[in-house]
User: Fold this.
Amino acid sequence: LDPAIGSGHFLVDVTAYIAEWLRDLRLAPDDTEEDDELIYWKRQVVSACIYGVDVNPLAVELAKLSLWLATIGEGKPLSFLDHHLRVGNSLVGARSLDVGVRWKGLLKAADDNEDQLALFEADEGFSQNLSHSVGLIRDIETTIADSVSEVKQQEELYEVMRGTIAPYIKLADVWTARYFGVTIDPPTWRAVQDYVLHGDKVAGISDLVEQAQDLAETHHFFHWDLVFPEIFFTPQG
Assistant:
C-alpha cells in the first residue's frame, strides 16, 4: 500500500520486487514462456496485492499509467486497476470497525445507559453485504484477464460491488461530516440511517445528506474498510 501514490513509482518498484520473488518459485503455468514469466507475475501482483490512494485524481491516473507500462504483455489487455487505486484523502474518513461497535463521543459519558450511536446498527444486512462485496473483489483478483472481455467482466463485478457498498459509503460521509461543521444528534442520526438504508423521508434529512456528500467530494473523504473490504473483513462479512 502507498497511501499517497503520486505518479506510482513506489508501486511500480514493489510490483517488480514481488513478481521477481514469485518468478523464482517457478510456480507459473507450464505454458508460460520464460521471457513472459515476469510479466505474468507482475500482472497477477498488480491485480491482487497492490493498493494505492491519493487525494489528487490526476496522480491516480498517472499511477495507473505507470503500472500499465510496467505490466504490458504482448497480446494482453491493460490490467484492471480501479479496485485497488482510488482517489481519496487517506487521513480523513470513518471506519466502521471503530465506530460501528458503539460511538460514545456524541453522548455525555461512556458509561451512560442512554441510547448510543452505531454507524450501521440500523441495517441487519451490513455483514451480508460486506460478505457479498468481499466475494466480488476476490472474483476480480483471481481472474487472469487475458482478453478485453475478461477485463470488462472485472469492471462489471466492481460496479456491482460499488453499488452494494454505496449506502454505507454515504452514511460514512455523513458521519465524517460531523468534523466539518455538520451537527448530528442521536435522533437525527437514526433518521439519516432510515433515509439512506430504507428510503424513509424526514424533513431536512435529505438536505443534510446532500450537504455531507458535498463535503465528502470537496475533502475527498476516504473510508478504508468500505473501499477495500477484502482487507478488513472475512468472506463471512
